Amino acid sequence: MELIVVIxxxxxxxxxxxxxxxxxxxxxxxxxxALGQIEVQLKRRHDLIPNLVEAVKGYMGFEQSVLxxxxxxxxxxxxxxxxGPAAQAxxxxxxxxxxxxxxxxxENYPDLKANQNVMQLQEELTTTENQISFSRQHxxxxxxxxxxxxxxxxxxxxxxxxxxxxREFFDAEPEATEVPKVDLSLS
Length: 187
What we know:
This protein is mainly alpha-helical. It has helices spanning 2-57, 64-80, 85-106, 110-114, 116-150, 155-159, 174-177.
């Protein structure tokens, strides 16, 4: 009888550990899938940028520094993809800043603003930026769920032993955390 109780306890412990392990694997795979979705959107953005640069190059002959910054930021962002979410987020944030500069300069060229090709590329990039934002939100939510699960009882007991470690968030752009200044004075 004692042997049956010991075997039953061992079976229950094995089932609990297996359940915890399977749950953590599922959460870890969701993070990988969410990161893959970000990478799909980033690749789309990286593919659109050379087309946009080519479309505006003829109009902006003397604004070469802006085009150079966009091209360099794109190259850095592509290279940062293999360095993990933190490095990738930083490089992508720099690329976003360079694109904002480009769009601001485009506003100064009426012919360029009216160009259908440029307008379509800007619209595609804006849509892609929105999809990147949603993908980042989804990724960060899955990271939060996973990190919470490996840091709470009973999973915390087994997570380290089973090789589950904390994951990094895909950080927001620095501008996204700043409070905008609003001046409503009539001067």
